[in-house]
Input
Amino acid sequence: MRDSQKAKRFVPVLGALAVALAVFISLKSRYGGGVPPTVIFVVMDTLRADRTSLCGYEHPITPKLEELVERGATFACNSHSPSTWTLPSHATFFTGLGPEDHQAGSGGNTKGMTWGSVTPLGPRLPTLAEEMAARGYQTLLLSGNPVVGERMGLTRGFDHAVVARSYPEMHDHRLADRLKLILQYLALDPDRPLFAFINIADPHAPWRGIPKGLGFLPARPPMMIDPGRARFESGEMGEEEAEAWLSHLSDVYDYSVLRADRSLTQVLEALEAEGWLDAEYRLVITSDHGEYLGEHRLVEHGRPYFYEPVTRVPLLYLSTEGEVRLPDDVPSIVVHSLARDGVLPEPLPSGLASVFRKGSERSSVAVPCSSSSAALWLRASKLVANRGEIVRFDLASDPTEEHPLPAGNHPAAAKLLEYCRALDRAYASRPVPDAELSEALSAQLKALGYLRDDDEPPPPQPSKPH
Output
């Protein structure tokens, strides 16, 4: 009896030894006698490329990004996000696959409960965290965006996941403060490499006020997105009121980007203080989407439109392992390969973006992009597909996208329509969550401002912001 009990007690020990041996063999085979690099993957949520001083913006609001470039980081200012809102973009970052494969997202148009069920990232595909864990990494997720959480399937594979309950909870220094506590008290193994994913959510609404004395921005009160958004988009605002409201919006957004850049500085300092950047490391930085600030009479993000303000994002890579040259229009889906392997994928993925949405009475299963919308970037041109129709924007001659051109005969039109069919099939076959979970997901997104009860606005007209 005693021998049997002793044997049972040894089983967990043997299991732990087997895991440790497997980790050792994995690291040994990949890195020889060297130590694998620390991998830090940062999403600066809701960050437009054109509103960073890194990419030429007039206000000096991203000095840390510029400093990283001075230290040898390569960067792209014409990268594009894989979708227009948090869940599908992060699902792509974590799987290296588009919505046509991972199926995460929603079946909605823009807002309101016409969206249909929200589909989290399911267990079918391995995540970046799971792949890194299989290579012996300790995995950590810290997110200031509540959507990047367990309910959405985005924490799978992380040993430790800490997610904000609301957007202001981890704004400013509070994100780095939480990271410091995690690094100090989680008893991470210094002999094992670390993979840390950080979501910095300061640029996401609601926005903090601007204090006096900043210099390049005036003092401003805090700003909520509603009810002004609905009044602006519907045309209810008069021209003078709209101009003042958009000026306020632009200023607090700029300040939020500056605060995100400061948060990035504090996050990297916290990691450095604990020794995680002392040896080899990789640092990957991008955004999940941008933000409309009045362009095309739209505000915020999450819409099934792919204008540059909501899709054009920065991408930056810094590694002690060597330089990786980034094409200026590299699609941001490559962050998966950069974080995992330290290289760009081969061949380089096409510049595609997409979003699911619930079909309307005008939709037909025979019409591509009936349950989705999609865009394809071809250097200075962009094709956009919606309910079987394709338009083209010449971004060189029409950077504000005010003059859509017919594109049915464009050589890439057939490719985009085929992609639309794949999206529609993915939407139709997506694993819809049960009623209880679907209600919980919708309630969470509604509380965070993604789902609203107001009516759908008409499709936007290509027009300049006020």
